[in-house]
Amino acid sequence: MNILTEVHDINTATGTMRTQVFRPATSGQFASIIFYSEIFQLTAPITRAAAIMAGHGFVVLVPEVFHELNPIGTVLAYDDIGKDKGNADKFTKPLEHHDSDTEALVAFARAQTYCNDKVGAMGVCIGGHLAFRAALNPDVKGAFCLYATDIHSNTLPCKQGNDSFTRAGDIQGELVMVFGKQDPHVPAEGRSAIYQQLAAKEVNFSWLEVNAQHAFMRDEGDRYDPALALQMYQSAVAFFHRTLN
């Protein structure tokens, strides 16, 4: 399926959030997926991933996740300087601001003539956490979370008791959680804690651990696993076709 790419500046409670929209180049209304990036924002691998999902019949919204902390259009490099800046942003922006971003994205999607009222979320790294977090919004019916960081450790700023781990039981939609067994950012004990919390809170979730390193979806660098990435895209497409039908 051919796609179109557009850029929209969306008003949020904390300022203007630039968002790239990838959508089918055909008439009709489609379900929306909010695709949350890594700390580096809208890099080439992230835009390619969004395009893949859009080509399967979804409207994919890719926001600048740290729009309050950077000039519009900022893309960080996959180097130490970019990593340091992205991590600083990650530990500065409170989860409550991510929540209001999600609200703005849902409202934007539902105002577009090419979108229906179904919304899901997907993300990698901190974006996996933000997809998990987005599922706290009752309008988000499904979230596909790839190697989500900082859930088990509760290291992102937020009000007391409002961290994503504690609030897991408030998720009403369905989750898919995917982790690499060789991922040092979410070690075995962290993965176990998340699994046990989701099970204890009776969240509707699926769980998959694969033999891969952190960022195995990113199609740049030595950690990329093309076969596993293809498997994840296929699984995500099937998941969203089912949960957002």
Describe this protein's structure:
This protein has 245 residues and is α/β, with parallel strands linked by helices. It is built from 6 helices and 8 strands, in the order E-E-E-H-E-H-H-E-H-E-E-H-E-H. It has helices spanning 44-54, 80-90, 95-111, 126-134, 188-200, 226-243; strands spanning 3-12, 15-24, 30-36, 59-63, 115-124, 140-146, 174-180, 204-210. An 8-stranded mixed sheet has the order 1-2-4-3-5-6-7-8, with helices on both faces. Strand 3, helix 1 (44-54) and strand 4 (59-63) form a beta-alpha-beta unit. The longest helix is centred in the last third of the chain and has 18 residues, at 226-243. The protein is globular and about 45 Å long.
List the keywords:
eight-stranded mixed beta sheet, 245 residues, alpha/beta, globular
- List the strand order in the largest sheet: 1-2-4-3-5-6-7-8
Tell me about the largest β-sheet: 8 strands, mixed
Number of strands: 8
Structural class of the helices, strands and pairings? Answer: alpha/beta
Provide a concise account of the structure shown.
Helix content is 32%, strand content 26%. The chain is built from six helices and eight strands, in the order βββαβααβαββαβα. The protein has an eight-stranded mixed sheet with strand order 1-2-4-3-5-6-7-8, sandwiched between helices.
